[in-house]
C-alpha cells in the first residue's frame, strides 16, 4: 500500500512547528488542546526530542496530557516524561484506565515506575500492582477496568439508574451481570436494557451464554476470537470465574496490527518490533540481525567447499561457474515465495496442517512449472551464447528446473515440520531455506553437469 | 506466532465429520444449528467440497444459512451456492445487511448475480445496485445500512421510543442525527441519550463535531482512522454530505488483517490474496509468480555475463569462484532485511519519508557493522583454507563487507524512491533489490580482487 500521509495532518504539523519556532507558547498551547490526542501523538513522532518535550510541556489539560502519552510509542513516552517530576506523573496515571496506566509505567525504567506506584493511593496501587502481575501479551495485560458490572438481583429500572451514575466509564455498550461472589453470570446490551420491562430483574433478561476469556489467555488468541465472532468487547475472568476486566475491540485492533508487522519482520530475521527501528542504536540492531544472517553465511561456506571440490572441472569449463548465481538465485526466490505462502497461511489459519499433502504438492507443481519455464529460457540463452560447449544449454536448463522443484519442496515442507514441532515457522523457516537451497542447488547442478558433460 | 488450532473446534470438527459419515442428518442439522456461524465457516474450510455442500444443505434456519455464507471465503460461498436454485438464494440475500449482500453477490458469476438481483423487490434491488456501484475497497463498498438516523427536531423521549422500534438493526451504540435533507448533523451515543433531559431536542444535545468519511474513501484509510482514533463506528456520507451508511469496527478488523497478509505476500511477489492459494489452479498460480522471478532471472543472467568476462582470472584462481555464492547470498539477505524494515515502516507510517537521511544512514550503519563482522569471519576462514593464495582472505573479507554496505544502501534507498514516485514499495522493492544486489555484488567483488590479486 502506498501510504500517503494525511495532508491535513501535514498542514497541522507545519503549523505546530512554526508556532514552536516563534515561541508562540499561548497559541501553541491552544492549538494542541483542540487537537485529538492521537493526532498530537502522530505529529510528535516526526519531531525532534527537544521539540516534542517543549510542545508537551505546553499541554495544560491533565486528561489530554495523559491521553497523548497512551497514544505515543513507548520510547517517546519515556522521553516525554523524562523532565516531568514524579509528583506530576502521578495525577496523569490516575487519569488513566488500568491498561493504559500499565502501558505508561512499563515504558519507564523499573526503579522510577516503582517510585511512582508508591506515590499512588492504596486502592490504586493495588489495582495497578494486580495489573502489572499479568504476563505481557496475555488478556490480563491488555484488559481494562473500565466497565459496568451489576448484581443479578437488580431490577432493570435500578440498573438503568446505575448506568446513569457510572460517568467515569468511557464506553458502555454492555452491562455485565455478576453474582454475590463477583462471578460472571450474564450480559445485557444497553439497548436490551432499554427495551426490557423495568420491573424485571437482570437475571431474568440477561443472556447467560457469555463468551469470556481467562486472564492468562494469549492476546493473539483473544484478537482472533474477537475478530472471528465480531464481538465488540469480551469479558475477562480469573481462575475462579470472577469478572476482572474487559477487552474492547479497539485494543484488539492494535494487537492485530502489531502482530502482522511482527510476523513480517520476523520472517526477514530482523528485530520484530517496529518501535525498535527508531529507538535502538545501530550496534544493537546489527546484533539482533546477526544470528539470522549466520545461517546464510553457513550456507555460503558450505557452498564454497562444494564448489572447491569441483575446481578442476570449473577451471576447464568456466561457463559452468558463470551460471551458479542464477541457479541458486532462482532457487532461493522460488523458495522464499513458497515459504511465505505456507508460513502466512499457517498463521492466518487458511492452511490446515492436516492437508499438508495438498499444500506441498501444489507448491511443488507451481515450482516445477516455473522451473520448466525458466529452464527453457536459460537453456536457450546458454546454448546460443556457449555454442562451443556441447550440452551446456541442456545441463543449465535442466538444472534450474530440477533445483526450483526441490526448492519449492524444501520451502513448503519446512514450515509444516516446524509448526508440527511447535517452533514458530515465521522465525525459523527463512534461515533454513536460505542455507538449504544454496547447498542443495549446487549439488544438483554439479551432478547434472557431471552426468552430461562427462567431467 | 505458532497458531495452534482451537482444540474445542477440532473436536467439533471431528464430531461433524462423524455425523456426516454416518448420514445422521437430523443430529447433524441440530448440531450445526447450535454452532456460531463463524465456527461453521471455520470448520467448512477444512472439509472437501462435497462434504461442505452436504452439511450446508442440512442447515435449515435461513438467517443461520445467510450468516454462514458471510463468514466464508469467496470460493467456498460460490461452491456452497452452486447447487442452490436462484429462488432459494433470494431469501438469503434479503436476510443480510447491504454490505454482506454485496459480498455474496460479488462471489457469484456476473450473470447469476444479475439474475438474482432481478428477482428481488424493487427497493432492495435499488439498495443493492447502489451498493454495487461503489468501487471495490472503498468506504462505500464496506459500509452497512444497518444504523439508526433520526431527525434533529425529535425530542429525547421520541428518540428513545424510535430506538426501541428499530429492531432489525444489529448493534445500536450511536444514534446519528440528520436534517430534512438527510445530511449528517451530529451524533449521540445511546448512553448520552439515556442521560439526557427527555424534553430536549436531539439538536440541543448532539455532538456536532462528527468525524465522517466519504463513500469514495479508500478502505485502508478508513481502517487507519478507526484504529488511530479508537472509534467504534464511523458514518459515511456521499458528496452532498447525506448520510448513506456506517462502517463498524469489526469490518475494519477484517480490512486490517487482509491488508497485512496482502502486504506480506506482495513482498514475496506471489498472488496477494490468501484465498487464491486454495481456489486457483497451479498453472494460474505459477503465471502470477512468473514476472517477479523474471527480475531474479535477469539479475542472474547479468551476473553470468559479468562472471564470463573474468573467465581467465577465475580459471587461474578457482577459489575466487568458490566464494561468489556466499558474497551475493549475504548481500541479498542483508538487503532483504533492510528492504523489509523500510517497506513495512512506510506502510505502517512509522517511517517518515521526510526523515529519509536518518533511515538510510541507520540501515547503512547496520549493514556495515554486519559486513565487518562477517567479513572478518570469512576472511579468516579463507586465509586458513587457501593459505597458498596470498591476499585471498583479505580480498574476500573486504569484499563481503563493502558489498553488504552497498546492499543495505540500495535496499533502503529503493523503497523510499518508489514511495516518492507513488509506486507501491511492497511490490517493486523485492525484484529490484534481487537484480541489483547480484550484479552490484559481483562487480565490487571482482574489482577488489583485481586490485589486490593483480589479476
How many β-strand stretches of chain A? 6
Mean pLDDT of chain A: 85
Kindly report the CATH topology of the largest domain in chain A: Tetracycline Repressor, domain 2
Count of alpha/pi helices of chain A = 24
Physical arrangement of strands within the biggest beta sheet of chain A? 1-2-3
Name the poorly predicted regions of chain A.
none
Largest interface, Cβ cutoff 8 Å: A-B, 123 and 122 residues
Relative helix content of chain A = 55-70%
Radius of gyration of chain A: 30 Å
- The count of domains of chain A is 3
Computed structural class of chain A = mainly alpha
Query: What best-fitting shape of chain A do the alpha-carbon axes yield?
Result: elongated
The CATH top-level class label of the largest domain in chain A: Mainly Alpha
Q: What is the assembly state of the chains in this entry?
A: homodimer
CATH architecture classification of the largest domain in chain A: Orthogonal Bundle
Amino acid at each position: 500500500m502506498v501510504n500517503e500521509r494525511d495532508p491535513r495532518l501535514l498542514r497541522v504539523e507545519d503549523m505546530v512547528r512554526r508556532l514552536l519556532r516563534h515561541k508562540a507558547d499561548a497559541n501553541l498551547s491552544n492549538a494542541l488542546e483542540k487537537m485529538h490526542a492521537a493526532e498530537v501523538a502522530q505529529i510528535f513522532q516526526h519531531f525532534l526530542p527537544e521539540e516534542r518535550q517543549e510542545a508537551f510541556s505546553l499541554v495544560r489539560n491533565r486528561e489530554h496530557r495523559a491521553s497523548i502519552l497512551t497514544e505515543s510509542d513507548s520510547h517517546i513516552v519515556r522521553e516525554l516524561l523524562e523532565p516531568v517530576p514524579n509528583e506530576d506523573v502521578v495525577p496523569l496515571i490516575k487519569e488513566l484506565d488500568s491498561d493504559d496506566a500499565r502501558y505508561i509505567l512499563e515504558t519507564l525504567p523499573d526503579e522510577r515506575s516503582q517510585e511512582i506506584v508508591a506515590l499512588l493511593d492504596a486502592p490504586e496501587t493495588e489495582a495497578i500492582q494486580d495489573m502489572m502481575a499479568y504476563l505481557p501479551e496475555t488478556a490480563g495485560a491488555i484488559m481494562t477496568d473500565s466497565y459496568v458490572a451489576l448484581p443479578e438481583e437488580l431490577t432493570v429500572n435500578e440498573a438503568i439508574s446505575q448506568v446513569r451514575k457510572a460517568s467515569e466509564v468511557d464506553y458502555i455498550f454492555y452491562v455485565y451481570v455478576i453474582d454475590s461472589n463477583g462471578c460472571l453470570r450474564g450480559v445485557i446490551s444497553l439497548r436490551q436494557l432499554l427495551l426490557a420491562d423495568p420491573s424485571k430483574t437482570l437475571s431474568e433478561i440477561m443472556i447467560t451464554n457469555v463468551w469470556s476469556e481467562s486472564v492468562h489467555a494469549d492476546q493473539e488468541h483473544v484478537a482472533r476470537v474477537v475478530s472471528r465472532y465480531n464481538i465488540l468487547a469480551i469479558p475477562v475472568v480469573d481462575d475462579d470465574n470472577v469478572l476482572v476486566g474487559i477487552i474492547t475491540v479497539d485494543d484488539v485492533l492494535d494487537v492485530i496490527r502489531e502482530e502482522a508487522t511482527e510476523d513480517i519482520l520476523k520472517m526477514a530475521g530482523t528485530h520484530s518490533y517496529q518501535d525498535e527501528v527508531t529507538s535502538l542504536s545501530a550496534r544493537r540492531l546489527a546484533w539482533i540481525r546477526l544470528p539470522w544472517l549466520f545461517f546464510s553465511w553457513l550456507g555460503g561456506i558450505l557452498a564454497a567447499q562444494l564448489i572447491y571440490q569441483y575446481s578442476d572441472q570449473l577451471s576447464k569449463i568456466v561457463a559452468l561457474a558463470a551460471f551458479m548465481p542464477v541457479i541458486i538465485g532462482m532457487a532461493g526466490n522460488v523458495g522464499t515465495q513458497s515459504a511465505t505462502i505456507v508460513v502466512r497461511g499457517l498463521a492466518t489459519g487458511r492452511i490446515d496442517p492436516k492437508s499438508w499433502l495438498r499444500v506441498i504438492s501444489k507448491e511443488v507443481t507451481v515450482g516445477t512449472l516455473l522451473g520448466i519455464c525458466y529452464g527453457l529460457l536459460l537453456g536457450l540463452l546458454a546454448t546460443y551464447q556457449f555454442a562451443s560447449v556441447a550440452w551446456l544449454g541442456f545441463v543449465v536448463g535442466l538444472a534450474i528446473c530440477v533445483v526450483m522443484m526441490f526448492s519449492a519442496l524444501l520451502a513448503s515442507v519446512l514450515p509444516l515440520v516446524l509448526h508440527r514441532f511447535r517452533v514458530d515457522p515465521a522465525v525459523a523457516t527463512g534461515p533454513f531455506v536460505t542455507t538449504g537451497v544454496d547447498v542443495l542447488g549446487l549439488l544438483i547442478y554439479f551432478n547434472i553437469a557431471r552426468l552430461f558433460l562427462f567431467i
